[in-house]
Amino acid sequence: MSRVIVDKWVAHLRSVAQPGAGQAPPTGPGLIARPFGLVVGDDQGGTDTAPHPPPAADVGLWWALAGARIDVDALLSGSTEGPLWPQGRFKAIEVWTEAELCGLHALWRLARDRRRDDWATRVEVVRDWHVQNTQPDNATNRPWALHVFLLADTPETRHYAETLLHNCLVTTGQPEPLSAWILLDAANELERSRPIAQRPED
After folding, report:
1. Each residue's pLDDT tens digit, 50-101
2. How many CB atoms lie within 10 A of CB 196?
């Protein structure tokens, strides 16, 4: 994906995220809101409030990003193929799909921040599996991991990302506060990952 296209997506996502992302990052209620709010708000002061025992699945990955002592490898234990976690661990496909995409969003950041190539490879495997096997509208209208799909830059992954964006707007025409911050974080991740501008030829 070219730098120009990435920049257009960054601007678009930030525009859509307003005014919801103009408010303070979400910190509750909800299991994911607290650690996600700590990460996107760059406030590491509340990491001692991580629940005990350590949370599992997507919530645990976000607490790891927030600085809590979480064994990420243990959360990811199991098969290196297919989704992050078995669907049977969750009560409904909607809950499982959102946990998968939320976890994928967190794992993208963990792989980069901790320079773990094996986690980066896992991100690619999970992303491609979901493109082939799930519909983004099975989630709960939150655009988790939108940037992960977009940066893969295939027709299928772009469509997946576009559907995630559409779904978070379909009810009221604008994202609810948590989704707005997810979009803002996706825009920031796109910006950090954009290609270096090519120099004009002499």
Report:
1. 677 878 899 999 999 999 989 999 999 877 899 999 988 888 888 999 999 9
2. 6
96-140 confidence digits (pLDDT tens) = 999 999 999 999 999 999 999 999 999 999 999 999 999 877 667
d(CA 148, CA 153) in angstroms, rounded, equals 9
The answer to whether 39 and 108 have CB atoms below 8 angstroms apart is no
**Measured between alpha carbons, how far is 171 from 178 in angstroms, rounded to an integer?**
14
Count how many Cα atoms sit within 13 Å of the Cα of residue 169 in the half-sphere of its side chain. 13
* Secondary structure string (H, E, C) spanning 170-187: CCCCCCCHHHHHHHHHHH
Cis peptide before 86 (omega within 30 of 0): no
